[in-house]
Amino acid sequence: MERQSAPRIEGLPDRSITRFGERELREEGIRGVDGPLGMTAKARAFGPVLIVEAEGTGSEFERRPIRPDLPTIDLLFVQQGEFEYLDAGVWRPSRGPLMIAPSGLPNRVRVAGPWRFVVARIPREALLLHAPTLDDRVSIHEELTLSERSLAVLLSQSVQSEQAASEADARLIARTVLEMAGAVLRARQCGAWDLEDRQAGIRDRAFAMIRRDAADQGLDPERIAAGAGVSLRYLQEIFAAGGSSVAAELRKERARIARSLLQDPGSGGLGATEIALRSGFGSSASMRRALATFYRLGPSELRQRGGEQLASEGRGIYSGSSSN
User: What CA–CA distance (Å, rounded) separates 322 from 171?
Assistant: First the structure.
């Protein structure tokens, strides 16, 4: 599957430099309210990351994205000016230099004087490799940390430069932005939660998905991580702290299902291959390996033990009824 790229989503080639005048911005869903837009923008593409710098004079404008619900996150740094935004019919001032928000949100903004901002637009799936969870709410922050100031400088210098970027340059800039943006999101969105409680909740969601869907052959660690709302790397770290792995817990649950089917008298007519498929395994060989790992027995031995247990229970019931 092709990885998401913010420039590709916007229809821009990698390592491209694109300038937007008023006409191009209107085509992107941005228009002035009761007057000219008074805005220009420049965008540079670095791998999956799109960096945009926009500036203008005092104006009121409305953004109605032509592609709502974009699978990207914006980290926007206000470099000059202050703005107000319309929230449920009320104008609310925002003097914070950092806004974090899902891309594609409609909004209406007014600015009193000259203004300028720089934004990093990043695919959610790329950020999940660096931040365990992503909040879909808009957040505005009134003070910048040192690392946030450093990220803002990197974004500004990268987008303002006219120097062509080599493939190596683009990879390095993208990787640096992703790592720094991930650190910002971890601090801003996860810092208020207790780490142990947060990880326990993530682990519980993953186990619930394994128990519910293990028989589905399409279930894999990547899908489990997506269902838990975190990156696979972060989920693997949580499971590793408990001495296990996502794949091992999935195999264990599938082995349990297979054992239950093998010892169920109603499944006596099913062959090993059919039981393997019903348990979520791709083949009887993978099922045999899992049963040997977790139960140290093969399908025939487990089926035999199930029959012996049933016979023993039958004798017990018969003996009990005869003694009366």
Answer: 80
Are the CB atoms for 44 and 154 separated by under 8 Å?
Answer: no
The C-alpha atoms of residue 300 and residue 309 are separated, in whole angstroms, by: 14
Alpha carbons within 13 A on the beta-carbon side of 198: 15
Nearest to 300 by CA among 270, 262, 252: 262
Cα separation values, 100 from 14, 166, 313, Å: 24, 29, 63
SS3 (DSSP) at 218: coil
Mean confidence (pLDDT) of the chain? 84
Angstrom distance (rounded) from CA 126 to CA 73:
10
What span, in angstroms and rounded, lies between the C-alpha atoms of 16 and 18?
Answer: 6
Paired with 19 in beta bridges are: 42
Contact (CB, 8 A) for 69 and 106: no
The single-letter code of the amino acid at 127 is L
Q: Scanning the structure block, which residue is given the tokens 């080639």?
A: 13
Q: What is the largest distance, in Å, between two alpha-carbon atoms of the chain?
A: 98
DSSP secondary structure of 270-309? --HHHHHHHTT-SSHHHHHHHHHHHHS--HHHHHHHHHHH
| Kind of pairing between the strands at 30-32 and 59-63 | antiparallel
Helix (H, G, I), strand (E, B) or coil at 52: strand
Residues 63/106, Cβ–Cβ less than 8 Å: yes
CA distances from 300 to 39, 210, 256, 263, 291 (A): 74, 26, 15, 10, 11
Assess whether pLDDT exceeds 50 at residue 318. Answer: no
Cα 3 to Cα 5: distance, rounded to the nearest angstrom: 7
pTM equals 0.62
Q: Cα separation of 212 and 224, whole Å? A: 11
- Of 48-52, 58-62, 259-263, where does the model show the most confidence? 48-52
Q: How far apart are CA 10 and CA 20, in angstroms?
A: 13
Q: Is 119:72 a contact under the CB 8 Å cutoff?
A: no
**188-to-140, 146, 174 alpha-carbon distances in Å:** 10, 13, 21
